[in-house]
Amino acid sequence: MSPGQEPADFASLARELARQPTLLDTMNSVVGQAVRTIPGAQEAAVTVKRGAQRYRTIAATGELALRVDAIQYRVNEGPCLTSLLSRDAVRCDDVATDPRWPEFGPQAGSDTEVVSMMSHGLFLEDEDTIGALNLYSRLPAAFAGLELSVLDGLATHCAVALTRAAEREQNQHLRRALDSNREIGIAVGILMASRLIPEEQAFEVLRIASQRSHRKLHQIARVVLETGELPLP
C-alpha cells in the first residue's frame, strides 16, 4: 500500500466501521480489513482483557487465530500478551524458535500451522481494558518488511471503533433498562390503585407473578400496562 493510498483507505475504513450495528460486527470488519490490507497477514484477531477478567478473542477471521490465541491464554505468554501489556508492536518471525516465549512457541509450532505473528497494542479510552490487534501467517518472517505506520493506522482505527461500539452497546443496554424500569414503576402504580395496596406489596405481587409464570419482570409489567391486570400463571 503506497503512502498516497493510506488516507483514502483509512477514511473508507472509518465509514465502514461507523456503519456496523453491533460491537461484534465492528470487530469482524476490523479483522477482515487487516487481512485484506496488511501484506503477509493470512488471518487476524482482536484480543481484549477487562480488569481481572480472562483474555478473550472477540473477533477472528479463522480457526488458526483462535487456536493460537487459546495457547497464549493457557500458558500466559506470547506475542499478543506481550503487546497487550506493553501496548507496542511485537513481531515474531518464527514462533517455534523465538526464545521470548519458551512455552508458547514450541506448543504453537507443533499444534498449529502458525509460523509468523505480529501484534499491536490498542490504546483504549477505558483504562481498565487492554487490547491488541493480532496478525498470523503460515510463512516465516511474513511481517519483516511491513511498514509499521500502516499497522499503526489500522490499530488506531480499531481502538477508536472498539471504544465507540462498546459505548453504543452500553447506551443501548441502559436505555432498555430505563424503559423496563419505567414500565415496572407504572405497573406497580396500577396495582396500587386497583388493589388499594402499598408500593412494596404491589411490587411483590409483580415479582411473584413473574416467578410463577416463568417470565421476566418487565414482561409481566408490560401486560399490566396493556390490560390493567396481572397475567394468569
Tell me what the structure shows.
By secondary structure, the protein is of the alpha+beta class. The chain folds into 2 domains: 6-170, 2-Layer Sandwich (Beta-Lactamase), CATH 3.30.450.40; 172-227, Arc Repressor Mutant, subunit A. Helix content is 57%, strand content 14%. It has 8 helices and 5 strands; from the N terminus they run H-H-E-E-H-H-E-H-E-E-H-H-H. A 5-stranded antiparallel beta sheet has the order 2-1-5-4-3, with helices on both faces. Helix 2 (23-37) packs antiparallel against helix 6. The longest helix is centred in the C-terminal third of the chain and has 48 residues, at 148-195. It is elongated. The termini are far apart.
Quick summary:
With 233 residues, the chain is α+β, with helices and mostly antiparallel strands. The chain contains 8 helices and 5 strands; from the N terminus they run ααββααβαββααα.
Task: Please give the structural blueprint.
Elements: H1 6-19, H2 23-37, E1 43-50, E2 56-60, H3 63-75, H4 79-86, E3 89-92, H5 104-111, E4 116-122, E5 129-137, H6 148-195, H7 199-213, H8 217-227
Antiparallel strand pairs: 1-2, 1-5, 3-4, 4-5
